[in-house]
Each structure stands twice: as C-alpha cells, then as structure tokens.
Amino acid sequence: MPQNNITPPLIEFKGSTLPVVTVSLRSLQLGELGEAANALFGDDPFFDGEAAVLDLSQAGAVSSAKWQFLKELFRTHGLNVMGVRGGSDELRQSARTAGLPTYAAVDRSARALPRADEERSEPPPTGVPAMETAAPPPAPAATRPEAKPEPSTGTLASTKSATLFLTRPLRSGQQIYARGGDLIVLAAVNSGAEVIADGHIHIYAPLHGRALAGASGDTEARIFSTRFDAQLVSIAGLYRTFDSGVPADLAGQTVQVRLTEKTGDSLGKLVVEPI
Q1: Labelling 187: which of 70, 130, 139, 230 has CA 20 to 30 A away?
Q2: Cα–Cα distance measured from residue 51 to residue 106, given in angstroms and rounded to the nearest whole number
Q3: Distance in angstroms (rounded) separating the CA atoms of residues 215 and 180
Q4: Between the CA of residue 145 and those of 78, 176, 230, 246, what are the distances in Å?
C-alpha cells in the first residue's frame, strides 16, 4: 500500500483572539508613573504576563517618551507592552521608532480592570496621576473557557439562558468569563484565579481570588459570595483590592458587592457588605 508522505506546511495562519490589556496613561513621566503603579499594584506583579497596549489619548501635549523604561516599568508588574494607540502623530512616531507599533481602538465592550480611585484599600499618594486599565473581550475557549457544555466531565455547562455554571475549583492563573450573562460558581475560586461576568456573579463557595461583575459596563450587576476572602472585586470597572487582607467584619462572611446610585458623572461608590 502506498504511504501518505504529505509534509505539513512550515507556516500556518489561524485566526484567534488574544487577551490584551489597555493601559490608559495621563502622564508619561517615569517618576510619577512609577509611584502610581506601585500605589495600584504594590510590590508584587499584579498581572501574569499579559500583553498590553498603552493608550496615549490622555497623555497631554508631549511628543516623545522614554519607551524602553516605560516597558520595563510595566514588565515589573507583569505586563508586556506590545504597542500604543492614541496620542499625537509625533508621539506615535516616537513609539514606532522605539519599536512599538500603533494599534487602532479596541472593542468598547472590553471588560474593566483596576482603576486608581477612592475604592482602593489604600489611596494613592497625593499628586500621583491616575492610571486606568481595561482589557478587550476575553480570548476563546483555548485560553479562557466560555459557556460550552462538557457532558463528559460535568464540570462546566451552560443553560438556554446566558448563565454559565462552574462546578470545578478554579486554580491560580485560571480565568472564567461569562459573556453576556451571569456566572454561578459552585466551587472554590483560589488565590490568583479570576471570575468575570457581564452580569451578576454568584459564588456558593470560598472566594480567594478576583471577581469582576458587570464587565461590559452594567452598573446594576452584583457579586454574591457565601465565604468572602477576595483579592479584588469589581463592578463595571470600579474596584477594590484587599492587599492587607479582608476586614474582620467581612472575612469568611456571606457578602454582596454592589454600586451605590450614580452621583453626577460618578459611577457611584463600591460597597462590600454582609448579607
């Protein structure tokens, strides 16, 4: 019988969506940015090697920056800067000269990640510029599992609604995203793990990691946990971290996380309260 000796191609193109964090900068001064980053993330890397794009649209009237030092600054916090967007023509040209290409605006439905605001457990120093980060829509199932039934294991399943059920523990570094609906978690979310939903998040197990509800901007979304010990919680981009540990009146308790009513241009205040 003849054998099939077809050699696979050395190069193949496959469409995919990779997770990329957008970092909005209001200053390009290294000293100010270093202080702001330390106030946001602390001494340990907050991210786990995610790619990042610097948004320069609010950076002011500057024409250049120390791009290699900026890349190293964010690398210490776990972000790999791969390019820029926004800003003046001169600033983008300066970035391109330094090897950072320019990218177009990302999807407006991107989920929100840490912002420097009053909800941090420790406010940033006076005079430190605010920093905002936002990530685009989560990656496909290869890197971030979504609502796809797995009857063979019974660990992850979706209903006819947009609700996603998670019935297995989530380990450090893993992420689950409930696109367009709620997320119900029936197993522990361990430290370093992250659960995300466009709607509400219900966790009927210990929450040791991060939980982000209203990821597409729903300010009515809430987070419920029957055993609260979170690293970070967020509603519609407004977040609170627990770098020094969860307060005694919340630790191990059944809590809800919600936003208060809007006041003017403000989203409201993030509230974590026992129920």
Answers
A1: 139
A2: 14
A3: 9
A4: 22, 6, 21, 28
Write out the two tokens for 83.
């390019």
* Distance, CA of 165 to CA of 153 (rounded, Å): 13
Q: How many CA atoms lie within 13 A of 224 on its CB side?
A: 11
- SS3 of residue 156 by DSSP: strand
pLDDT confidence of residue 244: 83
Which distant-in-sequence residues (6+ apart) come within 8 Å of 128 by Cβ?
Answer: 32, 35, 36, 39, 116
In the chain, DSSP finds a helix count (H) and a strand count (E) of: 3, 17
Q: In degrees rounded to 5, what are phi and psi of residue 241?
A: -105, 165
Strand, helix or coil for residue 69 = helix
Name the helix (H) or strand (E) containing 36. Answer: helix 30-41
Low-confidence ranges of the chain (pLDDT < 50): 106-161
Rounded CA-CA distance 230/87 in Å is: 36
234-273 confidence digits (pLDDT tens): 999 888 999 888 999 999 999 999 998 876 656 678 999 9
Entry pTM: 0.45
Q: Which amino acid is at 18?
A: L
pLDDT at 14: 64
Q: Residue 52 in contact with residue 79, Cβ under 8 Å?
A: yes
pLDDT the model gives residue 150: 39
Q: How far is CA 56 from the centre of its chain?
A: 19
Cα separation of 87 and 101, whole Å?
Answer: 13
Picking from 173, 181, 178, the residue whose alpha carbon sits closest to that of residue 156 is: 178
What's the longest Cα–Cα distance across the chain? 78
In a 13 Å sphere around the CA of 15, the CA atoms on its Cβ side amount to 0
